[in-house]
């Protein structure tokens, strides 16, 4: 298993190109199952989850072609498929595999998808996906850890999500586009990744209204066709580099990003004393010339402060003057990074869904363990400012969602090295 060795204390300077969004690419790849024509996707990040999704589609006998490996552009042709199934071996490594459920049942009338089970950051059920498909006429059974969905043809329905769910909205949107009649998704997720998916589906011939709002109206069509689509930039990778620049007192320009997808995060970091100049619609310069000040955050659905930026903000708060109260409302058990940062010298107390960070603290290098994707990123950030050497174990979590993280950080002046060991 690989690990990172990081010598902290370097100021980051230079330019970094942000990759395409992992969380937008995954539903886009699954949406290619909706048509027998090729769907060409660009700006795909070269990360482990994309390879897992490609494997999953290939398991279904869809053709996944890419000129490069790992894939950053893919053409997916699901002319026919032979296994409408997402097996446990793939779902257990990536719960977003569940995104194939909606497209499969909508186009082929059958899907068998392993239940994702628990994960480090909480229970994360898919009950809302299932209830919505049932309302659209699917017969669902759960057997041997698999969800099986059957429907001759799905029909439109009024779906009110009891809780806002990102992949739930995406799954049902991709089912509704081929359903008979009108589907209304209420209390839908408004994340930019959902809007990007809706834009791709419209290019494929779908009829969707209400993009960017919490009510999506879909008129089902008989058939969709192939298209080309460039996926949006990764707003979480963007936020992670903004924090990396800020925490090291650096001066970093980010390109190929979309500052408009991060308004709340950027405004919040400005309040903490980070200077952020939006240079264009796709670039910004981040500097931290004065000391950082702590501030409270509460994670919320979009457009609120994203839960996927919470851990990185905790790292920043350890270096900021004053007390920051961080409240996590989306997932239970999402402060696993705090105990590792405490081992590095941070002053953090966690009580249920709240973490109180008192800063600034001098962090010192230690051996720490990454527990999930974003927690791993936050430990890298903490290590960048810690004295001496930090070793971060289990970075396979990071490889799921960050493209060439160590190379990008090294280009900005960080002293970070991947130590490979035989698995
Ligand atoms: C997506 C993102 C993930 C992000 C999360 C919240 C992808 C691939 N992943 O995950 O990075 O952290 O949104 O922004 O896009 N819930 C239920 N029942 C359901 C579905 C969800 O109770 O059927 C609950 C979850 O347990 C959680 C909350 O709803 O507490 C939000 O989860 P959801 O938005 O579904 O997260 P994901 O789509 O899995």
| Mean pLDDT over all positions | 95
**Rg calc:** 21 Å
Quaternary form: single chain
The end-to-end distance, rounded to whole angstroms, is 5 Å
How many β-strands, per DSSP?
24
| Helicity, as a percent range | 25-40%
The small-molecule ligands in this entry are: uridine-diphosphate-N-acetylglucosamine
User: What class would the helix/strand composition place it in?
Assistant: alpha/beta
Low-confidence spans: pLDDT under 50, at least 5 residues?
A: none
Q: Bin the strand percentage.
A: 25-35%
- DSSP summary: helix tally: 14
Strand adjacency order, main sheet: 22-23-1-24
Q: Please tell me what the overall shape is.
A: globular
Report the major sheet.
4 strands, mixed
Question: What brief labels describe this structure?
Answer:
single chain; 423 residues; alpha/beta; four-stranded mixed beta sheet; 24 strands; 30% helix; 25% strand; globular; binds uridine-diphosphate-N-acetylglucosamine
